[in-house]
Amino acid sequence: MCGIMGYVGGREASSILLDGLRRLEYRGYDSAGIGTIDSKHKLNVVKDVGKVEQLAQKTELGGLRGIAGIAHTRWATHGGVTSENAHPHLSCKQEVAIVHNGIIENYLELRQELEGRGHRFISETDSEVIAHLIEEVYERKKDLLSTLIDVVQRLKGAYAFAAILVDAPNVMVGARQDAPLVVGLGKSENFLASDALAFIGNTDRVVFLDNRELVLLTEKNVKIYDFAGNLIQKPATQIAWELGSVSRREFEHYTLKEIHEQKDAVLQALRQDPRSVDYFVDAVQGAGKVYLTGCGTSFHAALLAKLLFTSYAKIPVEVLLSSEFEQYEGMLDEKSLLIAVSQSGETADVLSAVKAAKKMGARVLSIVNAMGSTLVRESACTLLNNCGPEIGVAATKSFTAQLMIFNMLALRLGHRDDELSELWSTGSLVEKALGLEDQVREMTERIHVANDFYFVGRSIHHPLALEGALKLKELSYIHAEGMAAGELKHGSLALISEGVPVVVLNPEDATYADTLSNASEVKARGGRIIGVSNKPSKVYDEYIEIPAAPPVLYPVLEAVPLQMMAYYAAISRQQNPDYPRNLAKSVTVK
Ligand code: F6R
Predict the structure, then answer these.
(1) Which of 75, 298, 405 is the best mutation target for the ligand 1 pocket, counting ligand atoms within 8 Å of the beta carbon and taking the most?
(2) I want to staple 96 with a disulfide (CB 3.0 to 4.6 A). Which of 91, 210, 281, 430 is the partner?
(3) Is 470 exposed, middle or buried (0-12, 13-18, 19+ CB in 10 A)?
(4) CATH classification of the domain holding 479
(5) In the listed set 190, 219, 244, which residue is the last one of a domain according to the structure?
(6) Per-residue pLDDT tens for 4-56?
(7) Catalytic residue at 156?
């Protein structure tokens, strides 16, 4: 969703900011803009709807001078996709510019109040009130810190913002409340962003701001305060995400690169601090009741974890959709354990589920990819996916990394330590599955014209059926449904007619024979069966052969051809798989 980037230092800000915006593109956005203060203490803003590259082509950008600036990619919530609604927003006297992520819940009330005192608004956004408020308070106080303290007292909602003022041309300020904001520490320059990826090419030393914190940055200094104005000392963290892993390398899209990275990612996910794994195991064993929560693909990983915990460790688990968590008011208590699963660690639905669970007294652990994210900070303990930044909007390597962590936990909980070592074979097995690429591409080029696809599997293959359908929908815009194979005959079989593709997830395990019967029922009604298995059958019209493996690993191996199918369906339909329409990588609104 929206992205913030800010810079203050000795270099020309606009090109650094533009570069930062390019790195934030993956989050999903519909307009972008940059604002800087020049040597004549004048604020200059260039913004428009469309892509960052369109912004980069604008001739006005060349005239954007200054060593302090802020930039933004906007994903519209309040107000349509127009250049007026794009950020940065200016105050009436054009003395303050702000960029903002999140939602100011009381913006209507504030706007009315400010308009009553003569402020003129240009946009329909909730964000613009921040610029006017800062201008008004600063005029009175002439002090940045006390202005910020006053302004944040007035704002309700979840937000992160950055601002520059003509009166303080070498300073950038920011505030965080329930939306991420990270400081990047450079040499005689400093950065502020909603995501460290925005500045990672310039520095890997960061300070993650916590909720209710303010920051004032100059090229030499970074000062962090709480909302009451107390100075806070915070340690810097070195982040391990190297610049290289943010580039597409030889791949045409990030999504394809990230699918290929899974051969390493599945092993990286196993490289956990043993103390954290012990903490998880003890917490699950000691809990009165275990709950898992997540959204989208992470929810599918949680569904699989439930089956693994139940069958390997006989530990009953409930999986609750984060976006539905309000339904469960009063259900958790002090003996409950909630494990939240999230790639970004910033999904608003997940964070709000965590907040609600904590309020009920539950202990919260998490499985997260983005280190330093809000979810990590809200959890008693986290197992990180360790799979590096995932830029493609669709979750791929983060999903299989989540599955590997759950495999490891389930085997540990089930005292099946002898099987744990088998998990290390996953890297070479995934590599074999990646060898299916040409076959999957060729098949997808033939069948992508179908209007509807179905994905079926039993037991641990059911969450993969859901995931296969989700991937196909979001990348190619083809309608797809995933379901438990045994459920077909209870209704959906009515939809099967000549040539309708049905992907049957059927490796050789306890579910094999029953799933094959379900596939035969579909075939008898004209369905086109795409079998994903290690064992061929004449029932399959198309056969995607995944390598034979210990059963616990089959879901990881199935994920690879399903992701490739979705990727090549998008390519065949001339869609950009990295940035599906209407979607954002980090869904920071409820
Ligand atoms: C699907 C996808 C989404 C996310 C969901 C949760 O490919 O990426 O369904 O899985 O928005 O996001 P995280 O895992 O960041 O909480």
Answers:
(1) 298
(2) 91
(3) buried
(4) 3.40.50.10490
(5) 244
(6) 999 999 898 888 999 999 988 877 788 999 999 987 888 999 999 998 888 88
(7) no
